[in-house]
Amino acid sequence: MTATLLKEASPPPAAPADHERKRRARRRARVIALAFVFPALLLLGALVVYPVLFSVGRSFFDASGDRFVGGDNYTEMFRDPATLTAVRNTAIWVVVAPTLLTGLGLVLAVLVEKIRWATAFKLLLFMPMAVSFLAAGIIFRLAYDEDPEKGVLNAAAVSVHDAFKDASSYPNARARDGQGLTKAADGSYGTTAAASPGDTVGLGLVGVRAEDLPGDARPAYPASGRKASADELRGVVYLDFTRGGGGEQGKVDRTESGLPGMKAEAVRDGKSVASATTAADGSFRFQGLDPGSYTVRLPASNFAAPYEGISWLGPALVTPAIIGAYLWIWTGFAMVLIGAGLAALPRDALEAARMDGANEWQIFRRITVPLLAPVLTVVFVTLVINVMKVFDLVYIIAPGPVQEDATVLATQMWLVSFGGGNNQGLGSALGVLLLLLVIPAMVFNVRRFRGSQR
Questions:
Q1: Count of structural domains within the chain
Q2: pLDDT by residue (tens digit) across 17-26?
Q3: Residue 5: which pLDDT band, with cuts at 50, 70 and 90?
Q4: Which value, to the nearest 10 degrees, does the dihedral of the CA atoms of residues 359, 360, 363, 368 take?
Q5: pLDDT over 90, % of the chain
Q6: Of 156, 157, 153, which Cα lies nearest the Cα of 321?
Q7: Do 169 and 208 contact (CB within 8 A), yes or no?
């Protein structure tokens, strides 16, 4: 009786037609999904998978691509000094740029919360992200120019330097041979004949263009005839050149100009005992001198070349200079991402810490940073991936003579393959090396994203 009731209560078995209908529906859904995914898979295969596989295969052939060389390209890669420089510079980029960017982004994100115009400040810092690397490279190439008339950074450096140290007005001035002045090893000029108190000496120089003379320069002829008293030594520094020709070398002619602003020293027994600065007519005088013989010296500072700033794009500073340009572009990106994580922090923990008497530095170090650790890690790893691929800034900012000093793996790969090396086998090996270096960071980031979604 019970078995009969259970048999009647159980549902009838599904008809074969229902199973077939469901199977067809699932098959149709798969086909539709594949149809939508196929264009993306096709592009992924054409733009990513095929180039990777081709590069791996090409790295085992010679420059022409006709002869199989096995691992020779990988061996040559680590014997090439330029490649070793690229690896070293890439390591510097990976360590320095993401660390500075993450730190700057964190500090700015915290500070922006304290200011009134936070949105406008974020906008200003994020604006460089809208500038292409090509345009940013051109901007910083001009900013780093060694000519202070063009490079804004060197113009600022020269202005600061000249504010604390006077520049020479006569960097090209020099004395004629055999005209009573000899040049010392330190660049100074001294009289060949000894002078005594009561004498007047003339120090003629050439190499100064008339248009470069100071505006207050006056003729030196009147000063050359002044008599010195018994305890003073007089002299005149003048431009030993007469416009239109004529005149006599080694003597002050009527139309020759004095050289104002030059420092002169009276030297006795190798020591400077008196100093003076020339007036508008080039005249100077040393008073209160003891009897004896003296040498009149024009110190090397009178002829020092003008300060022209810092060689930003020289071999020593080119990599830090390019990293500086990269920081300008990406600081806003790091700040915005970290700021988003900062906005999601539980405010009750911060308020509780303040109630317990913690100051802002303690809150930042012990609460804010630990809670932001996942966000900081993602930002740091993302920037590591990005700096490994940096190419545009290095190629554009670094001048040709220092291109090898600034090269990274991406630029070295291009230079070896297409920039004159024409060795695509070695270039492909460099590309494979770059891929192997990027993959661990990419895997780490993907796992981070999946963990945060869970």
A1: 2
A2: 777 788 888 8
A3: very low
A4: 180
A5: 23
A6: 153
A7: no
pLDDT of residue 417: 85
Average pLDDT of the residues of the chain: 85
For residues 120 and 191, state if they share a domain. Answer: no
Whole-prediction pTM: 0.73
In this structure, the number of other CB atoms found within 10 A of the CB of residue 23 comes to 10
Residue 241 in tokens? 């050149």
Q: In angstroms, how far apart are the furthest CA atoms of the chain?
A: 151
Within a domain: 324: yes
Mean pLDDT along residues 50-54 = 89
**Distance from C-alpha of 160 to C-alpha of 392, rounded to nearest angstrom:** 32
| First vs last C-alpha separation in the chain | 53
d(CA 382, CA 386): 6
Cβ proximity of 258 and 282 under 8 Å: yes
Higher model confidence: residue 442 or residue 8?
442
Question: Distance (Å, rounded) from C-alpha 369 to C-alpha 150?
Answer: 42
Please list the residues that pair with 198 across neighbouring strands: none
Same domain, 141 and 228: no
Q: How far is CA 35 from the centre of its chain?
A: 49
pLDDT number for residue 98: 94
Say which residues have a Cβ less than 8 Å from residue 371's Cβ, sequence separation at least 6. 345, 346, 349
Domain membership flag for residue 285: yes
Domain boundary among 283, 303, 323: 303
Name the DSSP letter for residue 48.
I
Q: Are 255 and 239 in contact (CB under 8 A)?
A: no
Token representation of residue 424? 């695509």
Whether residue 105 contacts residue 334, with contact meaning beta carbons closer than 8 Å, is answered with: yes
Question: What is the dihedral angle through the alpha carbons of 188, 191, 197, 202, rounded to the nearest 10 degrees?
Answer: -100
End-of-domain residue from the set 254, 275, 303: 303
Helix ranges (DSSP H) in 228-270:
none
* Residue entry with tokens 């340009």: 325
- Residues 284, 342 within the same domain: no
d(CA 347, CA 205): 75
pLDDT digits (tens, 9 = 90+) for 118-169: 788 888 888 888 888 889 999 999 999 988 888 899 888 888 887 777 667 7
pLDDT at 45 over 90: no
User: Does residue 265 share a domain with residue 142?
Assistant: no
Domain with 387, as residue range(s), is: 72-157+312-453
The amino acid at 94: V
